[in-house]
Automatic annotation (TrEMBL):
<dbReference type="InterPro" id="IPR005636">
    <property type="entry name" value="DTW"/>
</dbReference>
<feature type="domain" description="DTW">
    <location>
        <begin position="1"/>
        <end position="180"/>
    </location>
</feature>
<dbReference type="InterPro" id="IPR039262">
    <property type="entry name" value="DTWD2/TAPT"/>
</dbReference>
<feature type="compositionally biased region" description="Low complexity">
    <location>
        <begin position="74"/>
        <end position="83"/>
    </location>
</feature>
<dbReference type="Pfam" id="PF03942">
    <property type="entry name" value="DTW"/>
</dbReference>
<feature type="region of interest" description="Disordered">
    <location>
        <begin position="63"/>
        <end position="89"/>
    </location>
</feature>
<keyword id="KW-0819">tRNA processing</keyword>
<keyword id="KW-0949">S-adenosyl-L-methionine</keyword>
<comment type="similarity">
    <text>Belongs to the TDD superfamily. DTWD2 family.</text>
</comment>
<keyword id="KW-0808">Transferase</keyword>
<dbReference type="GO" id="GO:0016432">
    <property type="term" value="F:tRNA-uridine aminocarboxypropyltransferase activity"/>
</dbReference>
<dbReference type="GO" id="GO:0008033">
    <property type="term" value="P:tRNA processing"/>
</dbReference>
<protein>
    <recommendedName>
        <fullName>tRNA-uridine aminocarboxypropyltransferase</fullName>
        <ecNumber>2.5.1.25</ecNumber>
    </recommendedName>
</protein>
Length: 196
């Protein structure tokens, strides 16, 4: 088994893609990641957590609700009902939970955690379709975790999403560069008989 970077958890270290210092923002993010996503080469959650100053990444299938001694308003970034971003909540007083996994796995995480399902939802307003082409989206609203969080921070606190989207673009380039080149059959080696 190939060794992994202790920081980004990648066999091919991607730490050089990260900003020099974590990006400042006000909303506290808690990413709840399904274990099958932890070492997914195309996953964006780990790099997102390293790129942001107030972002915690938790991996598992069962999560207890973290203590909230500062009394932050809590919400879930997830489409559907109950849909209501907490009105009038100052960004620095908001804790936003994000589920990281396939749509099937994220629905399973939501089903297993009634405390999450009961939270008010933050729905993304007119988010652009995903530019993360290494993962297939079945609908326009299906974004990478990084894209969804960038759009949410822009919507909730006016954060410029460009640095995060640039990070994703650099990740996409690195993944495409690491792909093995397609093999080309030798001339005359296949594809029919000569003269046919």
């Amino acid at each position: 088994m190939r060794s992994r970077c202790a920081r980004c958890l990648r066999a091919r270290c991607l730490c050089a893609l990260l900003p020099e210092a974590p990006l400042a923002h006000q909303v506290e993010l808690v990413i709840l990641q399904h274990p099958l996503e932890q070492h997914e080469v195309k996953g964006t959650a780990r790099l997102l957590a390293l790129a942001l100053a107030r972002c915690e990444l938790r991996v598992g299938e069962q999560f207890s609700q973290p203590p909230n001694p500062e009394g932050r308003t809590e919400a879930l970034l997830y489409p559907g009902e109950p849909a209501a971003a907490p009105p009038g909540t100052a960004p620095q007083h908001l804790r936003l939970y994000v589920l990281d996994g396939t749509w099937r796995k994220s629905r399973l995480l939501l089903h297993r955690h009634p405390w999450l399902a009961a939270l008010p939802r933050v729905n993304l307003a007119a988010a652009a379709p995903s530019a993360y082409t290494v993962r297939k989206a079945h609908a326009a609203h299906q974004l990478s975790t990084l894209e969804a969080c960038a759009a949410a921070l822009q919507q909730l606190e006016g954060l410029d999403p460009a640095p995060l989207l640039q990070l994703q673009a650099r990740l996409l380039s690195a993944l495409q560069a690491a792909r093995p080149a397609p093999t080309v059959p030798p001339p005359g080696g296949s594809g029919g008989t000569p003269g046919s």
